[in-house]
Amino acid sequence: MTGSRTILGGGITIDLDAIVRNWKALDTVSGKALTGAVLKADAYGTGAKVVGQALYKAGARFFFVATPDEGVALRKALPQAFIFVLDGLVPRTARDYAAHGLMPVLASMSQLTEWLDFCLNQGKAEPAALHFDTGFNRVGFRMNEAEMVKRELEQSGFEPQMIMSHFACADQPTHEMTRKQNGLFQGVLNLFPDVPASLANSAGLMASKDYHYHMVRPGISMYGGRAINGRPNPMAGVISMHVPILQIKDARIGETVGYGAAYRLRRDSRLAIMALGYADGFFRSLSGIGGQIGGRVAINGRTVPVLGRVSMDMSVIDITDVEGLVQPGDLVEVLGPTIGIDDVADAARTIGYEILTTLNGRFPRGYVNVPDGVSLD
């Protein structure tokens, strides 16, 4: 493992081999479609530069980031990769995209006009993709703009690298919205029959080969998260997080725990205070208060509950039923083989995406199973 350690120990560990294995499994499922990789939000909190290098070595060539700044940073690590910027074209920055070899996913008539004007002035057709909004109501050309986009492209002679859209409900496999969006997307593609197409995120990739088209864009599934609700998650876990115990104490039935005296002990208990709070991304919604079931962590392979409110720097857990010696300095599993990211997400009433992109805080991040040639600098 690489990466610094705190004095007390603990930290976050990313298994690069697990990420690569997940990507290869998804690449197999995608069949003839190309398999890209979504590295936005610092590769969902796992480190875009390092993960990008590992995936490139495994055969990935197409990468998706959210912002141009993310693209610039990734370009330094992957000089030969194809990098799409999902946020589109930031006004008056076309020259910067081109300078770093970034392909904006153009999403409005103003973006398209600016990009075409830039290409005309340069005397060179810089590559870009087009995003059509098939019902999400985020970024993207409206469906009634498709004919206008086609005319603009025909007049300029510009050929986009790809036509894209994004599912709103693919994580709910029976949702009618997914079929509706796919139908609208096919209608757009009829106007651009020779342009490669991409629609499927992780859930779309797993749901049906009908959504694969020319390229799929997995994100959460590469990082071990659940992509489709109500189905077993086949992906390998890639992240573990351990934090130290600061103190252990015995407390009596009827005593309260944490801010607001919101949890009252129902038995004599042995409590451990761990060095983890909401400043580290351990959500306050993981508090165990009143009759509410809060988050759980693991010690010696046994899950134990959070008691009381999660505070900024510390949280209290009940270790009364843990067998064996537990003492200050021992590490608590917050994420790992016993506690998955979706276990934490379910307890916090959120999604695994938010857990991955938030659980960093003050703890160092290290890597295991680093492929040869991948730089950690």
Protein model, in words:
It is a single chain. The chain is an alpha/beta fold and about 375 residues long. The chain folds into two domains: about 30-225, TIM Barrel (Alpha-Beta Barrel); about 240-370, Lyase, Ornithine Decarboxylase, Chain A, domain 1 (Beta Barrel), CATH 2.40.37. It is about 30% helix and about 20% strand. The chain is built from eleven helices and 19 strands. Strands 1, 11, 14, 15, 16, 17, 18 and 19 form an eight-stranded mixed beta sheet that branches. Strand 12 and strand 13 form a beta hairpin. Helix 1 crosses helix 3 (about 50-60) and helix 10 (about 340-350) crosses helix 11. It is elongated, with a radius of gyration of 24 Å. The two termini are about 15 Å apart.
Topology:
Layout (H helix, E strand, L loop, with lengths): L10 E5 H14 L4 E2 L1 E2 L1 H6 L2 H11 L3 E4 L2 H10 L4 E4 L8 H6 L2 E5 L2 H14 L6 E3 L14 H11 L5 E3 L11 H16 L5 E2 L3 H6 L7 E2 L22 E13 L4 E2 L5 E2 L4 E6 L21 E4 L2 E6 L7 E4 L12 E5 L5 H8 L3 H7 L6 E4 L9
Parallel strand pairs: 1-19, 2-10, 3-4, 4-5, 5-6, 6-7, 7-8, 8-9
Antiparallel strand pairs: 1-11, 11-14, 11-18, 12-13, 14-17, 15-16, 16-17
Helix pairs in contact: 1-3, 3-4, 10-11
Strand content: 15-25%
SSE-based structural type: alpha/beta
The CATH C-level name of the largest domain is Alpha Beta
Instruction: Indicate the overall shape.
Output: elongated
Number of strands: 19
Poorly predicted regions:
1-6
CATH superfamily of the largest domain: Alanine racemase
Taking all residues together, what is the mean pLDDT? 95
Write the element-wise H/E pattern from the N-terminal end onward: EHEEHHEHEHEHEHEHEHEEEEEEEEEHHE
Distance between the termini: 14 Å
In DSSP terms (H or I, runs of 4 or more residues), the helix count works out at 11
